[in-house]
Amino acid sequence: MPPICPYCSTTFDAVDKLKTHIIAEHGAEPLPRPEGLIDLMVNGERYELQVEPNVTLYTVIHDRLGLTGVKMFCDRGACGSCTVIMNGRPVLSCMTLAIECDSATIETAEGIAAAKHPLIETYVKHHCMQCGYCTPGFVVTAKALLDRNPNPTEEEIREALSGNLCRCGTYPQHPKAVAEAAKLLQGGEGGTR
Amino acid sequence: MKNFAHINARSLDEAVTALQRYGKRAAIIAGGTDLLGKMKDEILPAYPEALVNIKTIPGLNLIEEKKGTLSIGALTRLEDIAIDARIIDGYPALAEAARRTASTHLREMGTIGGNICQDIRCWYYRNQNNRFACLRKGGGRCYAIDGDNRYHSIFGGSVEQGCYAVHPSDTAPALIALDATIKTSRRSIKAEDFFQVSVAKTTVLDDDEIVTEIQIPKPAGTSAFVKFALRKAIDFPIVNCAAMVTVSKKKVTAARICLNAVYVKPYRATAAEDAMKGKAINEANAEAAGAAAVSGARPMPYNAYMVQIAKTMVKRAILGCA
Amino acid sequence: MNKDDRERIIAPEHTLRADKYPLEDYSAIGRRGVRRKDGYEKATGYAVYTTDVQLPGQLMLRILTCPYPHARIKSMDTSKAAALPGVRALLRYDDPELPERADVSGHFGGGTEGHEPVLNRVGYWQGMPMAVAVAADTEDIANEALGLVEIDWEERPFNLDQEEALKPGAPLSNPESFPDGNFVIPAQQREAKVVWGNPDEGFKEADRIIEWRMRKDKENWVGPERPNGLFRWNGEYPEVWLKHQRPHLSKRQIARFFKIPVSQVTVHCLYQGGTFGGWSQMALNMQPNMIAGILSKRTGKPVKWQFTRREDFCGAGMDNARYQVKVGFKNDGVITAVAATSCFARKGFAHLGHFVENTRVHHLLQESNGAVLNIMPGSAFRCEQNMNALCLGAVLNRVAEALEMDPTEVALKNDGVEGRPMADLADLKRAHGFGGDRDSLKECIEVGKKAIEWGGKWHLPGTKRLPNGKLHGMGFTFTHEWSDSSGSGALGMRIERDDGSARILAQRCDNGCAAETAYCQIAADELGFRYEDVHYRQFEEAGFTTMTPDSSTNLTVNGYAIRNAARQLRQKILEIATTPRIPERPDMGYYPPFPDYKPEDLDIKDGVVYVKKDPSKRMTMAELVRPAFFMGKMDIGSTEPLFAWGWQNQQGAFMGTPGPRPIFVRQAHFVEVEVDPETGDIEVTKVVNANDVGKAVNPEGVEGQQYGGSVMGISRARAEDTIYCPATGVVLNGNLIDYKINTMLDCGPIDTIIIETGMGYGPYGSVGIGEDVATVLPSAYYAAVHNAIGAWVDMPTTPDRVLKALGRL
Lengths: 193, 322, 809
Ligand code: SF4
Ligand code: FES
Ligand code: FES
Description:
Chain B is α+β, with helices and mostly antiparallel strands. Helix content of chain B is 30%, strand content 22%. Chain B has helices at 12-22, 35-41, 78-82, 85-90, 92-99, 104-109, 112-117, 171-177, 191-194, 270-276, 283-293, 304-320; strands spanning 5-8, 26-29, 50-53, 63-66, 69-73, 181-184, 188-190, 195-198, 201-203, 211-217, 222-228, 239-248, 251-260, 267-268. In chain B, the strands form four sheets. Chain B has a five-stranded antiparallel β-sheet with strand order 4-5-10-6-7. Chain B has a four-stranded antiparallel β-sheet with strand order 11-12-13-14, with helices on both faces. The termini of chain B are far apart. Bound molecules: iron/sulfur cluster and FE2/S2 (inorganic) cluster (2 copies).
């Protein structure tokens, strides 16, 4: 249900807009937001969710939003498989409390794929996955890197991805795929099939 | 993870009030990368009743250089420190320490305030479900003494037969070498006086005290940071070392050298500092300073190798200042 | 199906020679750049693993794990736990429904292994799941309930070290099952002492004899998806989501356990987040599934279980062994005898098998002692040949050291099969259907040496310091390639009516080596289809006793099964194209599309059927098979369903038993390291893998196993070890911070070289690759470290060991 003004019943698409409206139009203090109500923008979709304090961002994204692109390998912040991009930063969703993510913008591997980011195809082309469990975490981390540094050196790519563990040992392939995606983003020939 | 109450503090005062309300039963959360691991593993005898989130306090996330002092807000992410051109240029030991901390993601989440306030990594202390209720948790004994102590102190315990867990921070020795001051919600503390050991504590902070800012005077000399770990990313240090050395006419006039992960708190290697005074920075002198730094080492059964590494780290940190 | 295919199926001895009917032309097979079938799903996160599955109303199951290395429960009070709101069911060790012992091991599926109490009252290692299980609305509630279980423990003395455990007076590690002592013959070996030839003779022939001790510590598998499962009791029969590499065996076990027909058990085996041949909680692998089954039945709700990462670390380890090795050799480098005694933490595997299979050394003595300990059980982790590979590598390199010889020369001198030197084996190669003239090891060594610049870089041990102050080392090892588990594979293949695409239906146990892609490549070439038109679909019922989802042997068995199915299907297509089904009704399409031809006049290429002599007479598969259904029209399709089964039996040579299939394909690995003499740090600066895989069906997949195996092999050799507290017997590093698996920065560049001599027994001359690089590579690393510092360092080569070997401690 969209937020509705208790004074005049106008509906709004965001709680913040409703708040501004109540202060401006009705000169009243808006009701405080219920504790644990968070607003998330995930892959361009807006969600309003009620969460308990102990719920991690991983649980919200994986269990409640059904986005299986966040994977849980270590559950302790040591592997990168649960990475999401939050407000431009690659962060570990297993070590993030959902309740602290109010009004965050979040991107997952699914969103990166939906946006047709070239990383997906370069990852497929270069066999960056074996069992594939760690792969979306790498994709998300690589996307965060390219957002900030569109033309990274191999060393920079390796540094950026060094917090992502892959038990299958796909490491040598990732720099190739990321470099090729960077090239494609800049309009160069990446040689995708 | 068990549940808890959660408070988003909108100001320092609000945070302090919340902490006072809960006393020892609350914990501060910033980056959360250390705290949530402890909570998930339920390593502590008492689970926190409330978390006070200080990320919502405005004004604590900044890097500023003014009048010869660098100010870093406590909530500044380690990654932002690692890539800041002013810090890389003027305070390389800190930039490098931040860069070598954990992994990309953890640096994007973890704050400098959190990094210096983090808890010890002793694997007995951290064993799940409070498996070892050791001294550090108010229990009767230290399990590391008879156990596997390959990552424990080489300079003795905190008190007689006391805790041998080392302090794991990478940035702490850099801040000490750079002679930083830590500002809290109620006072200013010299970085080297900031750390201490007691039950469930690694700093001198009171339960309701919050680190707000770190101030570093423009270094007179050059600084460097080196780290030894089994892996090139993710790992906590086995040994790290930061040095700041001032040289005049090819002779060292002042040196501040700090090791970490070798003792219960960052270990200022004064013997190495003294050894360097009046000497040129070269392989032989640095080597001698390294040897001096570990001359008082008292390794445990499993960690004699750390002495050799510590010695080497001191030497390399000094040479890094050349 | 041709005669060869048929014989291979009905008479296992026919798998003892080369593929007689490879294709003349390959199109998809061996081609680079075919798009991985699982790539997009995995890159985007859409690939679903068992852990991703959630069912409405599912309960979460948690099982108590033993906090001590050895302890018995005197009494247990579960009343508080049962009363906790949200707890829906609780199972205790004394529950009347539990059998006294059951097959819960999950690996051997009905053998003698793993007959254990489902919930034991005694814990034999810290972290063993035991005594009580709770199913609750959430994992947190289940955990809280476990915390409320009150237990009066009787702690028992324990053993952590095999040599200590075998000394007189050592306490019993498991008095219930091993009341007479801690000694066991390691699992999978029939006898403690095995002799080949006449070792005494062999040592007499020797010019020199050397002897040493070495050890290898406890690695852990660390599969990224933690062990988990989901059990839904659908009224009378269960539906199970299994993370398991042998789902077909598990299915059988579930049926037997619950006394229901196998055909009424539905098993879903989704993508596997790592399997690597072994997986944790090996000894009790099916235990949580059985408990989930019981509680799902009782509560009428789906029950999901999942170990924590720490629990997973306590489940099973690998390689924990000590060796005493003695080697006799001639001054020219020819080895005359090897005697090696091992002491394993149960269970252990053969350690001289590769000498039997793989060298000309025919005087061998292998003695294996095992001890029951109070640490996690041993399991095969990519793979049980670790011990074999380590012993071969160590012997080869020690002999080279003693003679100041280049180890690649020692390797070539001793390469052979079952006691005969390789140079004399041309006739044997021919007898098994291979050309006979290629020398696999020679080729591997030649290209490998070139790639790593061995000629200019190799030196005598401990003799090269680099300008940066580090010690430089070059290491080498070799062994054979393997794909020799015995077993069978079965699968189905069909042509879809609507578009003429082909689909393989087989039980999936995807473990990441691009096997499904390779299967599609084979099917495409055998059918004459485009690769893009062939797909793989998980279909569990096709998998009864199949090799399909086995981790030790995939392609080399299943490739034949695919080929059999494809050849039958191709024949059917051509018959349908030329034979009228109902000649009376040509108007309804029941008339052959190619009426005047015989099947042999036609061919299929790129999914188009055409007349060989007149390719203008052509029809696409889609046109040929016709849509399945037209509304309002009588044309319900012109062809019968196009479906075929394929299957394949394989008789294997297994673990050091002289094989009926002498193995001619080899692999050679080269590692370059720099050792920091001041810290003991070892940096791997270059790796070269030269693998003769016979025929690479999917070259990128092969390379993936090469560099992937190298990364894992280096990781295992450098720093991986599950660390037990010597005083309390508790695992100390059961997490991914303290257990050190390689990051992207911890391994230098890896050159992968594929050699294709065609001397594998798999289809088209192929051979397995998935297990071996990770297993063999540690020996090359071990040799490189020795070459750098001039002393041997046991693996993992942690800085303390290196500094000690350097005399710095
Ligand atoms: S070293 Fe300290 S934290 Fe570790 S077991 Fe001993 S007292 Fe506890
Ligand atoms: S699962 Fe979150 S970092 Fe590993
Ligand atoms: S592909 Fe399996 S863990 Fe990375």
